[in-house]
Write the structure tokens for this entry.
Amino acid sequence: MNLFAPPRTPGLRFLWLWGPPIAYMIAIHIESSMSSVSLPANLSDKVAHAMGFGLLALLFLRALAGGTWSGVTRWTLAGCVALTLLYGMKDEWQQMYTPGRSSDPLDVAADFAGAAGAASLAGAWSIIRRL
């Protein structure tokens, strides 16, 4: 039995593919609802956004690609960046209404940079795997 193979049952397959990005979006939502967040001393807010949303992009890519490297295409790469950007915009919109937080368009730019960087690396890796 392959523990990494997607389940064949449609409901379980959906959870296997989309459960991780949904759980991670819930975690981001909860963190964004807090009035203050502490980062490690040497980690800037923009780097934290790029890293966090880069991970979200990879989780979206896994789901969109069906959990396989052969499913990584330019469309799934573009889709994962687009979904991540939309969620980053939602995150900043939410922070406008959270006491003690503020919205910063540069955070959305950092989200995009992290998503695009992660998607680029994953896309390059999928090309290398096919050689």
Observations:
- DSSP finds four helices and no strands in the chain.
